[in-house]
Write a structure and sequence with these properties.
The chain is an alpha+beta fold. Helices cover 30% and strands 27% of the residues. A 6-stranded mixed beta sheet has the order 5-8-7-6-4-9. Strand 6 and strand 7 form a beta hairpin. It starts with 16 loop residues before the first helix and ends with a helix.
Amino acid sequence: MKVSTFKVSEEHRGRRYGELLLKALFSELHANRYDHVWLTAFDRHAELISMVEDFGFERLPVQTDLGELVMVKHLKPTDDALHDSVQYHRRFGPPAVHPSLPGGVYVVPIRPRYHTRLFPDHDRQPPRLLPDDDPFGNALRKAYLSQSGIKPLPPGATILFYRSDDWQGISAVGVVEESRRSDDASEVAAFAGQRTVYSFEEIEAMSGGGALAILFRQDRLLDPPWPLDELVTAGVLNAAPQSITQVRGEDGILWLTDRLAASF
């Protein structure tokens, strides 16, 4: 596929509309099983070039007759694919979770009101596209804050968001870029930037006992969600998670590996 037009007007910069457009593009590419996607851009579009490079587009050593760069993203992993799971996701996804799940797998409980804002495009929710006050919902690069006492998650870990209360199932998948724990609200807010659903006041309230901030990339949304009873039967969980929980059982990891491969 060739991307012919990709533009966000100057007055709407900073709302993550570029990443929202990329969501639509990656969804189309995945649904129709394209092998690669490419585009051309002039050097002066430095912001666009930087963004698409961060999502796995690579410059080819050629230019068009007009002097444009030619950039391509390959979507099919090869036998010599990257072993770094963050780079694997950037290069081939989304969706693309490294098949060996390096970095471990963690289940992250999230309340419905935060889930609705962080993942506004989930098919089971009323559409909330282009929210003016929630740019993090448009984005593919997001942040999640938790008061869980678990140590910071390693880069490349796979995180599975478990929507509590109403759905009681895993509804979204992400890949961790970086995480940090701090009891300084300003440090947490600066680290999370505009990626998080939480206001500064909420961050202050969370940081008293130390908040864990997780920067991650949205890999895919799951519809229908993977229900709690299946997760327990498969050995992924023992019960509904109350805080961030690492999946340690071999049976649970194998089940997740198969399910992630099937949903890809």
